[in-house]
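Table S5 (text form). Sequence records supplied for joint modeling of the four-component complex.
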Amino acid sequence: MTTDDHNGAALQHNQGGRATATIYDIARLAGVNPSTVSRALNKPGRVSTQTRKLVEAAAVELNYQVNPMARALHTGRTSTLGLIVADITNPTFFNVIRGAESTAVSRHYTLILAESSESAATELTAARRMMPTVDGLILASPRMGDDDIRTLAREKPVVVINSEVEGVSCVTPDVGKGISQALRSLAANGHKKVAFIAGPPQSWMSARRWEGVKAACEWSGIESLRFESTEPTVEGGRLLARDIRASGATAVMAYNDLLAIGLMQELQAAGISVPDRLSIVGFDDIFGADFTTPPLTTIRSPLRECGALAAARMLDLLTGVHDPGEALRAETELILRGSSGRLLVG
Amino acid sequence: MTTDDHNGAALQHNQGGRATATIYDIARLAGVNPSTVSRALNKPGRVSTQTRKLVEAAAVELNYQVNPMARALHTGRTSTLGLIVADITNPTFFNVIRGAESTAVSRHYTLILAESSESAATELTAARRMMPTVDGLILASPRMGDDDIRTLAREKPVVVINSEVEGVSCVTPDVGKGISQALRSLAANGHKKVAFIAGPPQSWMSARRWEGVKAACEWSGIESLRFESTEPTVEGGRLLARDIRASGATAVMAYNDLLAIGLMQELQAAGISVPDRLSIVGFDDIFGADFTTPPLTTIRSPLRECGALAAARMLDLLTGVHDPGEALRAETELILRGSSGRLLVG
DNA sequence: TTGTAGGCGTTATCAG
DNA sequence: CTGATAACGCCTACAA
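The corresponding structure-token record, covering 692 residues in total, follows.
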């Protein structure tokens, strides 16, 4: 049968050698009181150099690790940040996660991750589940209503990415610069009719992008059209190729790169040359946006920076700054690649 | 005692209305003992239907949420899984994260995430930091030594992805099928000399892939060469273009898709046509592998499945199964796209 | 079926 | 500067 037979369910893990040491063990070994151990470890300075060294030695000797739960139970602080993203599948969020994770760990915080699957209800459930365990919550592209967000924010610090909610700290890419660069470029290449593909209806960012595009078009005397996507994915982009083509637009700006890439693939499969017949511009500059042929022109959102900014803002909120402050804006910029350009006439 | 007398700077969050309710509050409201509340909520059946309903009503009334820390402190179980990936930057891990996260939440577990930045030391630190907070640890492409992994596994359940460690539960893609399919395809297209680009030296997966490629080459009478990469990224792939070209190989199999894509980009920039002059095959089938022109032929690893399998295995370990068992193998398969094919002679 | 009492590992308060 | 002691919120023998 099996080679090593443990007796029943008793010894498996955690008892391999000794259970994890507590400050009591250290206290005994160092010959001091547990409370002194706690002080020595956490607020050196409130204790004599001598006993501090004694305690520290005992701690390493016993391979001591604080028990975060026990600490949290008493202090209410968990040194943990929660991050909820709309869709783990969507590469847009990878950089947000990276940014948040790296600044969190750099400040000795831990990140816990959940997703809302693009659903407001799921998102709220996930948030509620996280609440007791985290010191603060970062919501990337929230789908829940502003009131729900404010309710959460009343309990613990909340920072929102890609959306702006009155009374809550926010970090958003400022679409203005990138969009105007893009439209200048399209106008310079003779485009007169631009289609915008919208993202999810609850998406704050999609609304801002459409506003920006529409305004910039008006300003440049370009006609603008709006299309709705079924889902903000490659597949969603594919589905729109036919309609876009029929619309007579010579350039398309898609809510995100995924839509842009799907659209481009479908058009190319139908023999429509990009950018000779149609220029395509995405948003975000996700990983892989430059893998396509032609590489995708896109308006880059500094997502990693947004994640990092959000985590940093959170850390501020957790250390005394209690003003939600103004929304932090991160600049966007046009990344001009091959998928946009001059129309080939004739 | 008044319920709400906050003093000065005290009130910011968490006091906005009421502090989070405890079982004591429920007990008071329902007119029973706290311990009865605990039982009613956790082991319905050990309590009369009447009081159970009473308690449940009070719980929703107060919007009660258990405090996971307090529970964990007593029970030792945290309902949290830790996941450490080698590099958050690397899209390979996105699917692993997705898989693990979704099966974790489906079983009411929470996922906490950390990365090792491809460093054994960082990884061990992250693991140690997580240990007290999690019920189990999933290591995706671990860089630390097997002994360190076993030491961790002695404390709490550990599941390893993309590596096999004696005595520890493992989930690995089985490279055999995918590699033999790839080599059959290359052989059928007349290739006689195949170069393999290796990944990080500590990577178990890289070693297996090289073994598999070498063996399959011998079996098919194809000459095999091995190159070392500086880093398993697009940039790392670019750097090897010159050497690969000089080697006389007509096909390349790269440790991962990133290397393959970088190599392809650099070759194309130098005017070398893929696959007419050189066939390229990657590993993993990451997001974006089909965005390239030609789209990348690659040996798909079911990474999402691996993440899910690992989490599922972990949950088993946490509910009574204490045998590490055999390594779980997930099949790989060749995804034949445009970057590999027949050599254009002349 | 329900109540009582103790403890999980820390930190904070209060004496000494 | 250090020691005793009481929480934090929950769970679980044990007693009623």
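Note: Chain B touches chain A through 53 residues (CB under 8 Å).
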